[in-house]
Design brief:
The chain is α+β, with helices and mostly antiparallel strands. The protein has one domain: L,D-transpeptidase catalytic domain-like, CATH 2.40.440.10. The chain has 4 helices and 8 strands; from the N terminus they run H-E-E-E-E-E-H-E-H-E-H-E. It has an 8-stranded mixed sheet, with helices on one face. Strand 4 and strand 5 form a beta hairpin. The relative contact order is 0.25.
Length: 160
C-alpha cells in the first residue's frame, strides 16, 4: 500500500526548483546579494558578483560598473557566451540623459548570468571577486534557480 502512495506522489508534476515565480528582483551591491521576491516576501537570496569596479553607478560603456536603479528583466537568452543570461533593460531614460549630458555612450548589454561557458568549474573561485564588465554573475546552479523563478517582464531594482 505504501508503494502505491509513493508512486502516486512521484507522478504529481512539480517545478524543477519547487520555487514559486518571483514578481520582483532586488539586488544590493554592497551585500553582493540578489533577492527573489514575491508579494513582498523573500523567496530566496543568492550571492552575486558585479563589474570589476562595483562602487558607483554605471555611467558609460567600458567603465566596468554595474548599473543602479529601476529596470526590467526584459528577455532571456540561453545561447550566450555565459550560462543562461537574463537581460537588464539598462540604460533607462535617466541613464541616457546622464550619458548625453556627459557626452558619453551609456553602454548596454547588462545581464544577469552564470559563468562564462567552459569555465563552470571555476565558480568556487570566480564568485569570490568582481570580474564582469558590468553584469551580475552567479554560479550556474544558482542561475538555474533564478532562470526558473523569473519571467521576462519582471522588474528589478539594483541598489548601491
Amino acid at each position: 500500500m505504501n508503494y502505491v502512495l509513493l508512486i502516486l506522489l512521484l507522478l504529481i508534476p512539480t517545478r524543477a526548483t519547487g520555487m514559486e515565480k518571483a514578481d520582483f528582483v532586488l539586488v544590493i551591491k554592497s551585500e553582493s546579494t540578489l533577492y527573489l521576491k514575491s508579494g513582498g516576501k523573500t523567496l530566496k537570496k543568492f550571492h552575486v558578483v558585479f563589474g570589476k569596479r562595483p562602487k558607483g553607478r554605471k555611467v558609460e560603456e567600458g567603465d566596468e560598473r554595474t548599473p543602479e536603479g529601476r529596470y526590467i528583466l526584459d528577455y532571456k537568452k540561453e545561447d550566450s557566451a555565459f550560462y543562461k543570461s537574463i537581460h537588464v533593460s539598462y540604460p533607462n531614460e535617466k541613464d541616457k540623459r546622464r550619458a548625453k549630458t556627459l557626452g558619453v555612450n551609456p553602454g548596454g548589454q547588462i545581464m544577469i548570468h552564470g559563468q562564462k561557458n567552459g569555465f563552470e568549474w571555476a565558480a568556487s573561485i570566480t564568485q569570490l571577486f568582481n570580474w564582469t564588465e558590468g553584469c551580475i554573475a552567479l554560479s550556474n546552479k544558482d542561475m538555474d534557480e533564478v532562470w526558473d523563478a523569473v519571467d521576462a517582464g519582471t522588474p528589478i531594482l539594483i541598489k548601491p
